């Protein structure tokens, strides 16, 4: 991992602006399930990541593994890349926003 754990945790905390309960509720919606790329399965990569993010947010910091920090780093990278691709106009009901929300970031917050 390129960044130390404190830096990764801080960046993760900055980009994930949804609470675990907000994210859990979002992941149950049809909009959430319809957004994102699928790697051959029924669930999109972002939707699976969202479930993992909820788990990470419920895990004590001392109990996080190197793999957990690697996923947190992946979330940070994805959110930053995706934000740079913001479409023009109202994004409220767009797949772009839905995809970001699957990764724990609501750009309207």
How would you describe this protein?
This protein is an all-alpha fold and about 110 residues long. The protein has one domain. Helix 1 crosses helix 5 and helix 4 crosses helix 5. The longest helix is centred in the C-terminal third of the chain and has 18 residues. The mean pLDDT is about 90.
Number of strands: 0
**Beta-strand fraction estimate:** under 5%
- Distance, first to last CA: 29 Å
Number of domains as seen in the coordinates: 1
Shape: globular
Order of helices and strands: HHHHHH
Report the radius of gyration as a whole number of Å: 14 Å
Question: What percent of residues adopt helix (DSSP H or I)?
Answer: 55-70%
Low-confidence stretches: none
Mean pLDDT across residues: 91
Q: What is the helix tally?
A: 6
**Main beta-sheet annotation:** none
Which structural class should the secondary elements be placed in?
mainly alpha
Mind sketching the topology for me?
Layout: H1 5-15, H2 20-27, H3 30-34, H4 45-58, H5 66-83, H6 95-102
Helix pairs in contact: 1-5, 2-4, 4-5, 4-6
Question: Keyphrases for this structure?
Answer:
single chain; 109 residues; mainly alpha; 59% helix; 0% strand; globular
